[in-house]
Write a structure and sequence with these properties.
- This protein is α+β, with helices and mostly antiparallel strands.
- It folds into 2 domains: 166 residues, GAF domain (Beta-Lactamase, 2-Layer Sandwich); 235 residues, Phosphatase 2c, domain 1 (4-Layer Sandwich), CATH 3.60.40.
- Helices cover 43% and strands 24% of the residues.
């Protein structure tokens, strides 16, 4: 009898272990099946729908549902369901903080509800009765410590979910959460790539707005440096050639960076080019640009600009400075600042702009820069400043008159680069140098 009892006990344990093993194998098969189905889906909705249906089939549930958390509103929005009626799903928005069950689940707990119809924590017991729902298992969808939503498995009778059921539900929730995060990251990456392509295309269009070649003129030589800080810059320079030999020279700096600055730059450039050939003085052209920008921009958007008109015979420049860095005229080792004009463009439609005229002589050097030059900063938080710029102009401008003007512009630029070293600059750098023959 003792032998038979011991044998029965051993057989019972073996049978139970075999049962446990079959359960674990079934769980692994279920997880493999779920993972395979989720991996084969391309859209987020397909992933969620596959998860709820597979969960119902694998755990032999009455129904299943997934709600995702809207982080802005705190609402748990229905994302997918299986075997739940439209009438049951058509209920008020579930605010996560108002639902004790969902609040606990979003804290990372898996919650078992013995009877949804009578549980005081349920916000919609009458709907549960009509739907015929009883026991429920609710698990959190989380990834990397971030709560994404909840997944629910429903039975239509009182059912005690086993530890294996709980483990399987949590494993499915983990798979779904990972799939959701991956889909969102993929979508964000695709969107970022699309925007990057658009920005590069816009940057290419913007580069075409810059002069391809410097003007060829019997009385002037031109050298230019342009280094944008981003793909899309707010600085620009331009040359406007007139049929009688005059040359308009423009340099401007749009407040801000990126797409908004580049759009303002394009608008200012087009308006100035149009106005320069219709009006009599540089100040009238600048006034027209000011009006256009004021109509099309907000208070925080403005442009600084310098517009000069070089005479055909090389003897003078008429100019208007709209809040920009002054033109620096080097003659005989001395620098004169040309800064007459008015306020920046786009702030006040009633601003009156003045223009001035300056005589030019052979070997005069004219230097125009944007504030990215004088405000360039080194590791000690020192700015390059106007004094260093003027010293650089005196040094390189006094070299042999046959030195290529492009080389002078490069030397001025490299003086700035040597000063700042490897410090990442926050503004575009633009230099325009003119030498009078």
């Amino acid at each position: 009898m003792q032998f038979v009892q011991q044998l029965a006990s051993i057989l019972t344990k073996l049978a139970y272990n075999a049962y446990q093993l079959r359960c674990r194998i079934d769980d692994l098969k279920a997880m493999h099946e779920i993972a395979s189905k989720l991996a084969g889906r391309t859209s987020l909705q397909e992933i969620l729908d596959a998860a709820t249906k597979t969960l119902v089939d694998t755990m032999i549930l009455r129904a299943a549902g997934i709600r995702l958390l809207d982080e802005e509103t705190g609402v748990l929005k229905l994302a997918s369901s299986c075997n739940l009626s439209e009438e049951y799903l058509d209920k008020e928005s579930i605010i996560a903080t108002d639902s004790e069950i969902d609040r606990d689940v979003l804290d990372g707990k898996t919650i078992y509800i013995r009877d949804l119809r009578t549980d005081p924590r349920n916000l919609f017991p009458e709907k549960a009765r009509k739907e015929g729902l009883a026991s429920v298992l609710v698990a959190p969808l989380k990834s990397g410590g971030r709560q994404i939503g909840v997944i629910r498995g429903y039975m239509d009778y009182i059912y005690e979910f086993s530890p294996f059921d709980v483990a399987l539900m949590e494993a499915v929730a983990s798979q779904v959460a990972s799939a959701i995060v991956n889909q969102r990251l993929r979508k964000e990456a695709e969107e970022a790539e699309r925007l990057d392509r658009q920005v590069k295309l816009a940057a290419d269009i913007q580069r075409r707005m810059f002069p391809r070649h410097n003007p060829k003129h019997p009385h002037y030589e031109f050298g230019c440096i342009y280094q944008p800080n981003f793909d899309l810059g707010g600085d620009f320079y331009d040359f406007i050639e007139f049929k009688h030999g005059q040359v308009g020279i423009v340099i401007a700096d749009v407040v801000g960076k990126g797409v908004p600055a580049s759009l303002m730059m394009a608008s200012a450039r087009a308006t100035l080019r149009s106005a320069a050939k219709r009006v009599a003085t540089p100040s009238e052209a600048v006034q027209e640009v000011n009006m256009r920008l004021w109509e099309d921009s907000v208070l925080s958007e403005f442009v600084t600009a310098f517009f000069g008109l070089l005479s055909a015979d090389g003897t003078k420049i008429r100019y208007c400075n709209a809040g920009h860095e002054p033109l620096l005229l080097l003659r005989g080792g001395e620098i004169t600042l040309l800064e007459k004009g008015g306020l920046v463009l786009g702030l006040d439609p009633d601003t009156e702009y003045e223009f001035a005229e300056e005589e030019l002589q052979p070997d005069d050097l004219l230097v125009l820069v944007t504030d990215g030059v004088v405000e360039a900063m080194n590791y000690d938080d020192e700015t390059y400043g106007r004094e260093r710029l003027q010293s650089s102009i005196r040094l390189h401008g006094s070299m042999a008159p046959d030195m290529p003007i492009e080389l002078i512009a490069k030397q001025l630029f490299w003086d700035v680069r040597r000063f700042v070293g490897l410090v990442k600059q926050m503004d575009d750098i633009t230099l325009v140098v003119v030498r009078v023959k």
